[in-house]
Each structure stands twice: as C-alpha cells, then as structure tokens.
Amino acid sequence: MTMLESTPRGGDRRAARGGRARGPGGGRHGRGGRSGRSRGARLGPAARRNISAYGFLSGALVCFAFFSWYPMIREFVLSFQRNNFVDAPVWVGLDNFRTVLQDPAFHAAWVNTVAFTLLALVFGYLVPFAIALVLNELRHARAYLRFVVYLPVMLPPAVSVLLFKWFYDPGPGLFNQVLRLAHLPALSWLDSTGTALLSLVIVTTWMNLGTGTLIYLAALQTVPGELYEAAELDGAGALRRVWHVTIPQTRLILLVMLLLQIIATMQVFIEPYLLTGGGPEDATISVVYLMYRYAFSYGNFGGGSALGLMLMLVLIVFSAAYLRLSRDNT
Amino acid sequence: MSTNLTASPRPPASPLAPATRRERRRRGRGGRFTSEQRTIISSHQLNSRWGRRIYWAVLAATVVGFTAVFVFPLYWMVTGAMKTGPEFARIPPTYVPSRFSLDGYRDAWRLMNLDRFMLNTLQYAVGAWAFALAFDVGAAYALSKLRPLFGNVILLMMLATLMIPPTVLLLPTYLTVKDVPIVRLDLLNTPWAIWLPAVANGFNIFLLKRFFDSIPTELLEAAQIDGASPWRILRSIVLPVSRPILGVVSIFTVVNVWRDFAWPLLALQDPEKMTISVGIASLRANMPQTTMTAALVIASLPTIVVFFVFQRHIMAGLTAGGLKG
C-alpha cells in the first residue's frame, strides 16, 4: 500500500529535477537538451513510465490474452454453439447442455468424480496430517522419512499410474501377491466395478501424499512449544493436546489444503484415462475424462465445453474461498 | 546497503532450511532425548521407560512402513525391468531377478524412441522456463514497481486466472492453439504450444510480484535519480536480490512441464513431438510389460536426479507455495 503512494511521488520528484536541470542548462550554454531529455519533455515522465511498463508487460499480456483470457470466453461461446469447424458455427442455446444431461455417462461421471474426491479426502487428507504428526515427534531418521515420502511426488504422474497398472494386474501383479502372502482372496482390482474406483484413489493418494505431509510438517513446526507445555500442565493427554492445541494452531493451513485438494481431485483425468478407460461399465469415468471423450472421440466440442463450463462453475466456488482465505492471511 | 537489501525482502524459500539444521543437532546425544523445539510429546515423557519403548517401536514401524510403501514399489519397478518375459509373468514372483541384465533397458531405449521423447521434453521444459522467467518477471516488475495505468486491473485479471484450473479450459485452449486468433497460426505439434501457455501462469505473477513488493522503493528511487533506466534497475537491483524467488519459479515451471500430461496429450499428438510421459503412455498397448517397465524407470530418472540435487529447494518452494499461495 505504501508503494502505491510512494511511486508517483518518485516520478514527480524526478520531473521537478528534470525541469530544473533543463532550464538553466539550456539557457546558459545555448544548446538543446540531449535527445532523451527533449523526448521526455514532450511525453512527460508519467507517459514514459507507462510506455516502459507496458514494454515489460507485453510478453505476459499477449500470453495471458491468448492462452488464458480468450479461452475462458471461448468456453462460454463454444458451449452455446454447434460447431464442426467447417461450416459457420450455429447458436443452439442450451442444446449442448441438454445433450450432455441426457447422456447416461453424465450422471456416472459426476457421481464418480464426487465419490473419488471424497474417498481421496479420507485417504489423502487425513493420512498426511497423521503422518506429519508422527514425523514431527520422531527424533531420528527424519531426513530419510521426509525424502522417502516425497519421492513418489517427483515421479511423473504418468509413470506412477502406469506402474500401478502393472501392480493391479490380477495375475503377476504386486497387490495380489501381497494378498496371497496374507492368505486373503485375490481381487480383480481395475476389472471389477466394486474396486476400480478405489484402485484409482490408491494411486492418487500414493503419488500425492508427500506434498500434504511436508506442508503439514512445516506448519507443525510453527506451533509454539509453550502451548503444549501449558496444556500438559493442565493435565491434557497427547490426544487432547492434538485436538486443543495442534489443530486450532494449524487450522488455516488445514482449511487451505482441504480446498486445494478438492480442486485438484475433482479434475481427475490421467488415472481413468490410463488405467481403465472409464470402465468397467462407466464405473471410473470422470467429468474431465468425459469432456475429453466428447471432444476427441465424438468430435463434439460443444458438449465437451458445456461439461467443462459446469465443472468450472463448481470449482470456482472452491477456488474463490481458497483465494479469499490466502489473501486475508498473507 | 547491500546487507539491507538481502535482508529485507522476506524470502519465502527459507522456512525449511533452518529446520533441517536444527534437527541434525537434535539427534539424541548420549541416548537421552533433548529437544530445542517442544512438540506434542515432551522429552521428559520420552525419557520414561515406557516412553522410550513406545518411541522406538513407533520409529521402527514408521521406517519399515515408509520403506515398504514408498521405496519398495520403486525397487519392484527397477528389478522388474531386469527380468525376462517368463520370469516377469511367474506366480509367485521372484523378489530378486535371476540375472541382473540391462537388456530390458536397452530394448526400451531402442524400440520406444525414448531419446526423441527425452529431447523433446527437455526442449519444452527449457523453453517454457526461459519464456516464463523473462515474461513473468517483466510483468511482475512492471506491476510492482512501475505501476502503469490500468496496472491494478491487469493484475486482478492475471490473478483471477488462478480461480479457474487450466484443466477445465483444455478444449478452448486446444482450439485456440490450433488456430491462434488474429495471427492465424496453427501451433499444435510445435514447441510454442507448450512454451507460450506456460507464461500465462497467475501463480508465477503472484509469487514474483509479492516478492518485488517487499523490495524497498527508496532504493529504486535512488537509482532512478542517478539516471538509471527501468531496465537497468531491474537488472542491477531487483534481479540480484530476487534469487530465491527466481529459483522457486524456475523449479515450478520446469517440473510442471515435465509432469504435465493432459495438455501435451492434446497439443502434441505427433509421435515425433510427444513428451516422455505421453510418448510412453501412447505405446502402452504395443510393448511387452518388461520393456514398458524399463521405459518407466528411464522416464523417472531425470526428475529423481533433479530431486536429489535440488531436494531442499524443492521442499522449501513447496511450502512457500502451499502456505502462502
């Protein structure tokens, strides 16, 4: 805020100085100012500042305009048009939305996406916090544990997903081998409607767990030790200390991470795309995957954009809450 | 003056660095638990007889559990690629391959065009990094220090893009890149399809502008009075003190390009132009599982190496983005 006021002041000061310098200098020696200075006199320092500012801005402005702002508008336009990219596009009102809503896969996609998000929250939200709590108490092997938990995050997601596709193989796959060792019945994992979605959640959790864990760990290290000290003196056990000290102290970051995770998991695409192709019987089709299918399998960009628009409206609610939270607290 | 400069911009990249140093010192000397930072369980409790037993049990369980869950799959991947076809399909599987051969890796490299995919991805990552750094630093500097007319509107519009995840805009962005308005260019299957959209990243602008805001204006004004141009101020004052944030933005940009899947899947469909992730995924149906697994190992090597080298920067950048983003 101080910057807002101080920069124009700097500009004014400069203008005043320039004026003073030009007056006597020009008069005494009878020669014109340097070319830069005379250009400055014509344009004024504010104009010059604006010109150079827009020079610095131009690259990013062009990229944002073409690859961020324009596609946002285009998403709206496309979802109300029928467009085969050969003939002129026709405005069709809500036809695309009607088509999409009547598609039986639409219902499945939303149910799966919400179920996936909730399941991923149970695993991917609570587990990292619990892990971070334990890691923060440990006095040994911390560097190793922190390194190891973040290792899967560094693999490209496509690698993790394809790796797990092999692990889920009902025959020589690793998971059924583990079940055999434990004398449990083998599962068909990705091939059964009952376990397919859960299998996707396991992959997602495995490859993203490290991010949450490390962020919580950093947050836990900011909790003042005196609070635990005081709680202990009041006779609070370890669990009560977590509940009454740790969680209130890290409330903000817990909330922020909740929103971020909902936003990220609702966009699930690569897992169904590479593992199941949406099957079996649409058991794992997600909204983004259905959007992809509309555009690139059915050639219906209108329907796909309508789906994208719906998801966008849902996600905006969460991201607005997130931005508000992080704005108020930085 | 220089100490003032480096000290005052709040470096968001630091929260983890002191912690690691502290831990190294914290490791119990002489077997007793002492701790500089009080956590939920006090050192006193840990030093009781049961406290010690439970502590060691939890530690052992955590180390074993983490190794099993996070390291063992990677071991399985690396050794799986060494097995022959029949050994690979055996039930129950062998835990150590009967022979250590790199044939699987050689096949993958030869048959799957991996060198092409690797070079492509490298080219996309380096270009995206250069463009994002040049354009986003310029924009953030202009918005933070030069404050042009309508600067606040532009900033707001750039930050507004953070509300809309790029995934939901995949289709219109694809169509835009396919036929860029005004200039009428088809950028599909060219590196530009990765490079230019990487610049349009509201988070970069946010991080950079917040950092530049914390550089005291008086310094820049002093330079300005001495006749330094905005370009010169950026180069000699702003950039040198912004090294931490430039590091964070660089790592984010490069890692994002390397990890991204959905966008390169749409924008680079030509097998000669594919990224490593998309390329391997596109061949998943036609390759024997051992070759495929070897390709997965090769594809994860670059990011794992980067992680080993920049481990602390990556982890610090993560908390900078997560806490304040």
From TrEMBL, chain B:
What Pfam families does the record point to?
Answer: BPD_transp_1
Q: Cross-referenced Gene3D superfamilies, in alphabetical order?
A: MetI-like
Q: What membrane topology term does the record carry?
A: Multi-pass membrane protein
Tagged with keyword Oxidoreductase = no
Q: Provide the residue span(s) of the region labelled Disordered.
A: 1-34
Q: Which domain of life is it from?
A: Bacteria
So where does this one cross the membrane? 54-76, 122-143, 150-172, 192-212, 292-310
Q: InterPro entries, from UniProt?
A: MetI-like, MetI-like_sf
Compartments, as annotated in UniProt: Cell membrane
> ABC transmembrane type-1 domain: from which residue to which, for each copy?
118-310
Kindly give the SUPFAM superfamilies that the UniProt entry links to this protein. MetI-like (SSF161098)
Keywords from the named record: Cell membrane, Membrane, Transmembrane, Transmembrane helix, Transport
Indicate where this protein is primarily found: membrane
Q: Does the UniProt entry include the keyword Lipid metabolism?
A: no
What family name appears in the similarity comment? Belongs to the binding-protein-dependent transport system permease family.
Q: What is this protein called?
A: Carbohydrate ABC transporter permease
Q: What is the lineage of its organism?
A: Bacteria, Bacillati, Actinomycetota, Actinomycetes, Streptosporangiales
